[in-house]
Design brief:
CATH topology of the largest domain: FAD/NAD(P)-binding domain
Number of domains: 2
Shape: globular
CATH superfamily of the largest domain: FAD/NAD(P)-binding domain
CATH architecture of the largest domain: 3-Layer(bba) Sandwich
Number of strands: 20
Number of helices: 12
Length: 406
């Protein structure tokens, strides 16, 4: 998220320093083999900060519809881009593609410290002071505002003694790239099962990738399994795994032809109660790591970027100190309703759709049936998944930031 924020701020009269642990000539660990489902709102933010052309040129897959179902039960619903008046509900993008689009180069107002690490941080009334290790030696930096975008657990948060609220779901996400015989037709599947949600995202391979010849038969899978099931699933050979996956999908996209290497990630919710303190703001996973159901984690972080960039620009326009607590509290108050709603929603989805109690089965299937029959409810759910519900940032609304530092 730090690179995203630097792109959002690059047109403002600021001196920006980016401290990054990964060398320039290495792939960033945050942009690994996972695919990311970008919401419609995130697409607008990336477009406004100038990164979308690079992303789209490398390869993106539009999500035109999302089919939601409950394994073994009749409840289901479909969200459709046409019903929402948008070209796509969102886009699926390889994390590596996003990483390349967000790469930074030094400029007159942007200095990169890479590879480097933060050794200490002291917050003074007028500025924050950091000691970093860079190129084998220590260096002191000062700033009006330090933005921690260093993931979870955050090293900045640890140095400041911040306490995180953590909860494990007893689930692990198993991810893989799947090739089917039939085309994905730009349709995503969100399938709720007794062990957790199972998502199949349409993901056409970027040009020149080894599996690009499969074109529209390629999917990104996220299978949430109970922790006690993971060893068995990971040990299956490819054919056994594909057969098990077909059964959990209800053969909706069968037959499945091939699967890439599987990777497992433990699932949790993990967040800071307070995202800001005097001269420090936490964004992205440094502030909140959430369950991947509904694919909201990266999108939530981009909305942090958009609102924080707007807060900084407003401070410049009013000759104000962006690191003061009043300004940062305003940013925090703008963001809290969004992340609390997303955390509550994902938590409720995981708990209610990973449980086979008869009463819950009846309620959730009634809910899905009601959702399908009432367009206004589908519209509300679609807006939340597209990141267009609630207050919108200027960047998400297509408005450029300006800071004239009067």
């Amino acid at each position: 998220m730090g690179a995203s924020l630097a792109h959002a701020l690059k047109g403002l009269p600021l001196k920006i320093g980016v401290i990054e642990a990964t060398p320039f000539d290495h792939d960033h660990p945050s942009y690994d083999s996972r695919a990311i489902a970008l919401s419609h709102g995130s697409y607008k933010i990336l477009q406004q900060i100038g990164c979308w052309p690079s992303i789209s040129s490398q390869g993106v897959t539009a999500i035109n519809s999302i089919r939601i179902s409950d394994r073994g039960h009749i409840g289901s619903s479909v969200l459709n881009a046409l019903d929402e008046g948008v070209e796509a509900l969102g886009y699926v993008v390889e994390a590596e593609v996003i990483g390349k689009a967000l790469q930074l180069k030094p400029t007159d107002n942007l200095e990169l410290f890479c590879p480097a690490s933060v050794k200490s941080i002291i917050v003074h009334p007028e500025q924050a002071e950091l000691t970093i290790e860079h190129n084998g030696s220590e260096r002191s930096l000062t700033a009006k505002l330090v933005v921690a975008a260093d993931g979870s657990p955050s090293s900045i948060g640890h140095l400041l003694g911040e306490k995180r609220i953590k909860r494990r779901y007893g689930q692990t996400a198993i991810i893989s790239t799947i090739i089917s015989r039939q085309s994905h037709n730009n349709t995503a599947f969100e399938r709720f099962t007794d062990s957790g949600p199972l998502a199949m995202l349409p993901n056409t391979a970027p040009q020149d990738w080894p599996d690009a010849s499969y074109n529209e038969q390629r999917w990104s899978m996220v299978w949430s399994a109970r922790d006690d099931q993971v060893e068995e699933i990971m040990a299956l050979n490819e054919r056994q795994f594909l057969t098990a996956l077909e059964l959990r999908l209800g053969r909706r996209i069968a037959p499945l032809l091939a699967a890439s290497k599987r990777i497992a990630y433990p699932l949790r919710v993990d967040y800071l109660r307070d995202h800001v303190r005097h001269r420090v703001a936490f964004i992205g996973n440094a502030a909140h790591a959430i369950h991947p159901v509904a694919g909201q984690g990266f999108n939530l972080g981009l909305r942090d970027v958009a609102f924080l960039a707007e807060t900084i620009a407003d401070a410049l326009n009013n000759s104000a100190d962006v690191g003061e607590m009043d300004r940062l509290s305003h940013y925090s108050n703008l963001r809290k309703p969004d992340y609390l709603k997303v955390i509550a929603t994902t938590d409720a989805l995981v708990e209610s759709f990973s449980n086979n109690l008869t009463s819950l089965v009846v309620l959730r299937n009634l809910g899905l049936a009601t959702l399908e029959r009432l367009p206004p409810l589908r519209h509300l759910l679609a807006k939340q998944m597209m990141g267009t519900s609630g207050k919108q940032s200027k960047l998400a609304s297509g408005i450029a930031l300006s800071g004239d530092n009067r």
